[in-house]
Every structure is written in C-alpha cells, then in structure tokens.
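Whether sequence alone determines local backbone shape is best considered at the level of individual chains. We regard such an encoding as a compact summary of how the chain folds. The sequence in question and its structure tokens are set out directly beneath this paragraph.
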Amino acid sequence: MITRAALALISALALGCNALPTTINRTPAASSPTPAATDGNDGAGAGPSAEPVPGDCEVAVVLDPVGHGAEYKGSGFQPETPLEATFDNHTNGQSATFTEVDFPELRTDIRGAFLLHLFAQRKDIGDTTFTVTDGQCIAETDFTTPADRFPEVECTPEVAAPGANDASDEYASLVSEESPISYWRFEETPGDEIRNSDGAAAEPFNDVVLGQPGFIEGSRSALLVESVAEDESGTDVGGWLDIPDLELAGDFTIEAWYRFCGEFIWAQDALVGQGGEGPDINFFEWRARLYNGDSDVVVSSQIVSSGGWHHLAVTRDGADVTLYEDGAETDTGTLAEALPMKAIGRGEGGRFGSSFGGWVDEVAFYDHALTAEQVAAHAAFGDHAGVPAK
C-alpha cells in the first residue's frame, strides 16, 4: 500500500508552489544523524571540513505523464541516511534547501535509494536544478516544468439559471424515492439559505455562488470558487459548505454531480469531506478516490475529464466499496470503519490549497448501497439533459 505523507513543502521554496511528498513502497525509518566526516589523517575518510563530492550517487526528475507532479528519485547514496535536497530556480532566481527535519521522507532506504512524488501548485516553475547530498556524495539534475501543465483556473460565475424544471424535478423524485438521509439540490438563488430536502441548513464559507446553471439545463447549482481566503492556519481555502454532521457507519452511498472550472485538478478538489483532516472523496492525481484519512480505499483507474458535468457515486455494501463514474463501475476497494462526512467542497486536501474549485449539484447521502442499475439511472440524466457525460 502507498502511504501518502502530506506536507506543505515547496510553498516555502519561493518556487511559488506547494507539494505533497509521497513515499513509495516503504515506511520512513526512524531519524538518525548523518554519519560524521572523519579526520583526514586516520585514513577513514575526508576531513571534517571536506565538501561532498560527485561519485556513484545520481538523481533524476521524471514528470508525470498526466497531472502536474514529478518523481524525484536517486540511488548510490549511503543506506538509511538523511539527505539534503536543494531546489535552485533559474526562472525566478530563488533557492531553498530541505532536510529530513523538514519532512521525514527525505532519507535513503536500505539500498541507498529514495523516491519522492511531489505535486506543484503553480504553473510558473520554469527551469530548476535539483541537488541532493548525503554529506559525502552529491548529485544534481536540471529539469523544466512546462507552463502548459498548469493552466489558469477560471472559476467565473455564469449567467443565473431560471431554476428547477420538469427534468430536474424528475431527477429529484428519483433520488427521493431512494430515501437519502441528506440531499442537497442547490436550487437556491443568491442570498438564500442553503438547505437540504429535510430543511437542514448548510453554512457557506468564503466564495459560494448560488443560482448557477445546473447539470440539467435550466436548473441551478452552486459554484465553489477556488482559493479566495485563508483559514485559521494561513492556508488558502476556497468556497465550501459546512453541512450537518453525518456518520456513515454501515452501508452507504454518496453521489454528486460536478463540473471543474479550469484544469487544475488535485487532492484539494474534494467533493465531500471534513472541511480539514480526515476522510474525503477527492481527485488525487486527476483520479477520483475515496480516502479514509490514512490511506486510499479506492482509486479510479481512469483520468477524469476537466470539461463538462460528470456524475460520481461511491457505495459500500458490507465492507465492499464500489466507485462509479458517469454511471459505470470503475474500481472497487474495502472499508470496514465508519465514514464521517461534514462538508461539501472541502476535505483533507484543503490543507494544501484551495477547495473543490467548480460547480456542484444534487449531492446526496444514503444509508444504504444503491444498486449498479440505480446509479446508472441517475447518471443517465446527464445525457437526458443534453449534456454528454464524457
């Protein structure tokens, strides 16, 4: 299993980005000091003032085929040793250095190798030199992150929609027949309180724009505008909704319609979650996933499209979890523990940047698992409304 260690790393770089380092196939070992250089007269090694020198160690940076991250990897270093990594940005002239104190993953394994997965949050990274040393050997490589991997986000409110119509009411009736425990239609207009089908209110934070066009032509949705304010920790967080707490202890279904604004899609784009640390449904590496607050429960095998409306549903029957995208089953996993839900549009990824960033519509929570046929029937309303599902 891949353990994802979450840190706001490169925001401090002056490279102008945040990163999420990920250790692959290992758990970081306990911290240990870098071996001290020995006196040059005892024949054991370099003197105390000696600088690291090039040797058998080497590093490389490999950009993801999709997404906006890269693998930072190296080999030939001392085994199980803390490393020092430096990023020199030639585009803006800034430089920053990190050690194991900054994040525990920056150390070698028993083979003298390391592998990190970092995700940047800005497009203007440009040309950079990545340098790594273990105190004795030093290696560096140059890499460039193309600007086209970081398209601008366009969370611009659209012309207000007239409201519910026959097609959207038909969809709502279909959902209601399956007895959701919390159902948010988002048919409100600006200035209205946001309420679910039972009358319970949600508290909006930051920039939430109501009355937006919904997934069915003529109906309404809510736009959660990306990165507009800082929370109490100083983290940029966009619009999101604090909803009455739910504890999905048994079988459940979570479903929603969503449409991204722009193509900046990452773990902070959580459809539902805690409004902070903990379980959520997000789009890590441009793939839908259910995250239990510790590790992945299920991750889609498909890259999401950044354009148009899409339907997403996650069900649990017993401990078996199924992920559906636009009405089709994509992947499965297992989850035994209860799943709390407290927010729409913000999950754990909110610690690293903005919230969902896009439009949400018809978000529903059930205390039972919908069948594959029921999920497909809901997703079919995308085509019914003249909006292609993919």
User: Anything to note?
Assistant: The chain is about 5% helix and 35% strand. The chain has two domains: 3-149, 166-384. The longest strand covers residues 240-248. The domain at 166-384 is CATH 2.60.120.200 (Jelly Rolls).
